[in-house]
Amino acid sequence: MRCDLIFRDVTIIDGTGAARVVGDVGVSGERIAGVGDLGAWSGDREIIATGKVLAPGFIDAHTHDDRAVLCGPSCMTCKMSQGVTTVVVGNCGISLSPVRMTQRPVPPLDLLGDEQWWTFDSFAAYAERLTTDPSPVNTVALIGHMSLRVEAMEGDVRRAATDGEAHRMQTRLREALQQGASGFSTGLYYPPSQDAPTDEVIAVAEALRGTGGLYVTHMRDEGDGVLQSIEETLGIGRAVGVPVVISHHKCTMPQNFGRSAETLALIEAASASQKVDFDVYPYVAGSTVLMPDKLRPNVPVKITWSIPHPELQGKWLADIAAGWGVEQGEAAKRLLPAGAIYFQMDEADVRRIMAHPLSMIGSDGLPHDAFPHPRLWGAFPRVLGHYARDLGLFSLETAVHKMTGRVADVFGLADRGVVRTGAYADLVLFDPLTVRDAADFDNPTLPAEGIEETWVAGQSAYVYGAGATAARAGRVIRRGTHG
Ligand code: ZN
Ligand code: CU
């Protein structure tokens, strides 16, 4: 048997959570052609990978890569250098379709860019662009409530939607699901969605019923009201009869440190009677747009970008305020529009949430930030290196499962997230002894160490030291299809 690529004597961690095995893996075209002892096979390219791990390419369960997947291989180096081969876009209520913008969108929609990027008035148009001008990675897409809301309410969003407006959103969502979107996301925490009552969300989410699509949410409150927000999320899932995913699960603000014991117990109890999962990133700081009224004295803030003051990206807000001789709130207003990193979580909560069996790893990276949170370049190797290997929080097999097979199961991605004959050859080869995140809060855009090569559908997409290749083998993945 002759195939395109063979890994020999490689440690296979297959993504299902099963224990590693040493063997050979053959790739033919875009699929895995064989796993086991392939001594009788030969390959156009043979990699003797003794001591290295071959895993399914990582599936980033939570991204804001809606625009990054449109702009060629270099835009996705941040992810491919971590071993990521599939990204879930459209999170937190923010999706680049189906809405056009004629002026700079309100925060946080502007995380994806100014009006020139908002040109897709249907999900079909967005998916079409990804087909004619493919990304190097695969895309799974959610449709954002905030995008739908700003359009249906013509920007007048500081109120509940009327029945007519909610119906318009539901219709737009239904169309997008028919065109291949995988679910519906909300960002009820953010001002453009804050005034949406639960009933409005249920009315729009009604479009999910019977489609297999997911309800994914950046909840209304991840701080003092986190338990009520989880109840709201679970209630929406039950009302429409769909699986829910809680985005970047966390307990924010020092007074809530330790409460993941309560939140996880609540989620776990609910999981006995409804489908619920969550994603998490491996850091004690979050990042989003800068919101002056969300500042708290005991939460340090670092600036990731600022339109009026680009020279201050990467600086602490406290230092900027001191330099200007003003309060932090005033300094924040002067920086707008801007982005920020908020150091607002507890390490013990991060570990407890990540270690929970219902967790998936999602970077939540913000690819257009000038001085981004390091999760954009480091989330996956940080879980593999720092948390699994160095701290022993869980086995490497479990770490890989939380970034591959589990995510494929939750999002319904057929033949992805697993090393098995017949599955897509989305693969990553890494050194388990050296894999680590190099990006940190001072140098946030450094590629991971120890991730040697990443393949998408059998094509080499990233090589350590050389960067992204010219391959563009990514496609739009629809739930349950092989697309
Ligand atoms: Zn979010
Ligand atoms: Cu997000």
What does this structure look like?
The structure is a single chain. With about 475 residues, the chain is an alpha/beta fold. The chain has two domains: about 55-285 and about 340-410, Metal-dependent hydrolases (TIM Barrel, Alpha-Beta Barrel); about 285-340, Dna Ligase, domain 1 (2-Layer Sandwich), CATH 3.30.1490. Helix content is about 25%, strand content about 25%. It has helices at about 75-80, 125-130, 145-150, 165-180, 190-195, 200-205, 225-240, 260-270, 315-325, 330-335, 345-355, 375-390, 395-405, 405-410; strands at about 1-10, 20-30, 30-35, 40-50, 55, 60, 85-90, 100, 120, 140-145, 185, 215-220, 245, 275-280, 285-290, 300-305, 340-345, 360, 425-430, 450-455, 460-465, 465-470. Strands 1, 2, 3, 4, 5, 19, 20, 21 and 22 form a nine-stranded mixed β-sheet that branches. An eight-stranded parallel β-sheet has the order 6-7-10-11-12-13-14-18, sandwiched between helices. α4 runs parallel beside α6 (about 200-205). The longest helix has 16 residues, at about 165-180. It is globular. The model has no long low-confidence stretch (mean pLDDT about 95). The protein binds zinc ion and copper (II) ion. Zinc ion binds near residues 92, 187, 218, 247 and 248.
Provide a quick synopsis of the model.
The protein has 483 residues and is an alpha/beta fold. Helices cover 27% and strands 23% of the residues.
Which helices and strands occur, and which strands form pairs?
Layout: E1 2-12, E2 21-28, E3 31-36, E4 42-48, E5 53-56, E6 58-60, H1 77-80, E7 84-89, E8 99-100, E9 119-120, H2 123-132, E10 138-144, H3 145-152, H4 163-178, E11 183-187, H5 191-194, H6 198-205, E12 214-218, H7 226-240, E13 244-246, H8 260-270, E14 276-280, E15 285-289, E16 301-306, H9 317-324, H10 328-335, E17 338-343, H11 347-355, E18 359-361, H12 375-390, H13 396-403, H14 405-411, E19 427-430, E20 451-456, E21 459-463, E22 467-468
Helix pairs in contact: 3-4, 4-6, 6-7, 7-8, 9-10, 12-13
This protein binds zinc ion and copper (II) ion (CU).
Residues 62, 64, 91-92, 218, 247, 364 line the site of copper (II) ion (CU).
